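queue> holo job accepted (C2E)
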Amino acid sequence: MIDDFSKQFEKLIDIFVDYEHRSRENLIEVLFEMGKMFRLTKVESEFYKSATDQRDGVREYLCDYDIGPADKVVMSKCVIAKTGAIVKCTAYTSNDQPPYTEEELRQLDLSIRALQSFISRNRMQRAIETLGYHDEDGYPNFPYYFRHLERMNTTCGFRDQVALLYNLRQFSIINRDLGNSIGNVVMRGHYEAIKEIVGDKGVVCRVGGDNFAMIFTADKLKPILKAMEGIPIVYDKENDRRVMVSACAGVFIIPPDFVFERPGSIVELIFPACQKAKLEKNGIIEYVSKRSFEERENISRVRRNFDEGLAKGEFRAYYQPKVDVRTGKIIGAEALCRWIRDGRVVPPMEFIPILEQNTDICRLDFYMLEQVCKNIRKRISEGKRVVRVSVNFSRKHLLDPDLLENIVRIIEKNKVPYEYIEIELTETNTEVDFKKLQRLVNGLQEVGISTAVDDFGVGYSSLNLVRELPWNVLKIDRSLLPGMENERKKLSTIVFGHIVSLANAMGIECITEGVETAEQVELLKEYGCPYAQGFYYDKPLPYEEYEKKLDIGKY
Ligand code: C2E
Ligand code: MG
Ligand code: MG
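queue> job finished
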């Protein structure tokens, strides 16, 4: 009997601990064995979420074991869990059973306690689940959808799956014409109909208002698309009143090479397609295009590989010389970032805009500054000629209150004289950013580090920016450089000439970017722009090649 009990008890505990992976049948089977072992006829339990619920008689009643007359109570125990939930378990037996021994009662006591602790955990979990993963109307919500995607990722994966976001069309009109409560009935009816089509391998969640998210196996796509065109929903059975409900949807047929990053990225990918579907007058289905998928993939690839790339030194500072147009002498350089990944030189436009979406760009810029400082330090130590190098700093840095200190710390650490470093910044478009930019430029100025306005002449450039801040250098964007012979050339030349004069008159060093031809060099000379940077002289060069050019010193 003792042995029987311990085996039985172990089985019970096993199930109680690992209940998520056991079926309800499993549990009932054990309950039956336990009941028989203790000669019970019935085991019942009551679950109250709180003392208030108990007072009001709001309970969940569970009775899976009931095999005979429940004549007398063998044991009745009530516990209050840490969460405040109350679990009461009662075991009954019939009149024809002999009295219980003390040992039997002790074992029964132990079993009932285990059962109680299980019930309280299991029920609370369900209560939490209902609260967290369902909305106020009882529909599974976004967290439910996300959790489902996470689970798929760790179990079956996304092969042959379709994710879809949809919005009920003109649902506000249904609400307006039939009233909100019928609107609710219609929505529920539609949800149930869609759920039926999706089957138990997929999920449908309401993700706010009349928006739904689903994921299902590809074989269901056709009937789902048909349902999007319209399903008649009966809202008044007696009078057979019905309304057609259609939807517009963004559809993502998940490709085999899809890499799951996080649940949000699937939604972000479909959302624009769904928005587009909403705007279309006739078409109601919009697929996630291969291009937007690839763009997304690139974004997640960059984000995924960035840390590793940085740690492995895959980011390199390339140098593009800056030249005095009158003498051909190299007077400085701009450090431009290149990502050497899998033997390919990745240009900044493929990763900088992505890194700029969060503050990763700041880590990269500091890394670049560090590389530049190291390169300069080395040349100084070798007694070679050193020129000023400019480093691009993203606008994202303006959020960093310690930016100035951080820049200074890196330069100091590498023992580089401030005069050899220049920080390139682009313009800002908000009042708040302007104030921050002003503080930074003034701060750098005080320390003795040069600042340059990059890309002057595109975007939000304003003369105010040049007037209000003490820049050292104005970098004229190549879009302002007069190009081919055409009727606009004359006007462009006038604008270009005036900007150069303005910089010169204000005592700001002036350099034109993107100089590609001898004719353009002549133009710079003619209008008095002393410095140029561009393919006419050199492309951004790997450090070793740049060093060779710098050793020669001129073009
Ligand atoms: P930017 O700072 O305006 O850099 C000048 C860009 O013009 C460089 O592009 C350069 O290769 C290109 N360029 C130079 N001469 C010519 C020319 O004669 N013709 C043409 N068509 N282009 C020329 P790149 O290296 O692709 O960099 C693009 C942009 O990426 C940079 O524009 C800068 O905004 C950003 N960037 C590059 N490296 C960094 C970095 O380390 N940090 C940050 N925050 N941004 C960076
Ligand atoms: Mg620049
Ligand atoms: Mg520029």
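queue> The chain has a mean pLDDT of 90.
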